[in-house]
Design brief:
By secondary structure, the protein is mostly helical. The chain has five helices and no strands. The protein folds into two domains: 41 residues, no CATH class; 42 residues, no CATH class. α1 packs across α2 and α3 runs antiparallel to α4.
């Protein structure tokens, strides 16, 4: 994971000496939680940068953030939302 930026990211939340243990896998549950939080934070940042329609917003929240999606999205809405998300991610 060298060069991924995870060490710097985790150093913001955890002590520097503890980050080495996180990245080596010695504290599995905390490592898993740190990665899940990093994933959710990145998904939220990308979502904020993506120009989504009102019906696409819950689809992205459900897909990437695990929020409760009260609307069942049709396939076209899902494809459109994911395409916009991927376009934002790759730009």
């Amino acid at each position: 994971m060298d060069g991924s930026g995870l060490k710097e990211l985790f150093s913001v939340v955890y002590a520097a000496s503890f980050v080495d243990k996180l990245l080596s896998g010695h504290v599995y549950v905390r490592t898993q939680r740190a990665h899940i939080l990093a994933y959710a934070a990145l998904a939220a940042i990308i979502q904020d940068e993506t120009d989504l329609y009102a019906d696409e917003q819950p689809v992205i929240e459900f897909t990437f953030l695990g929020s409760d999606c009260t609307q069942k999205a049709n396939e076209d809405v899902l494809k459109s939302a994911l395409q916009k998300f991927n376009t934002t991610l790759n730009s």
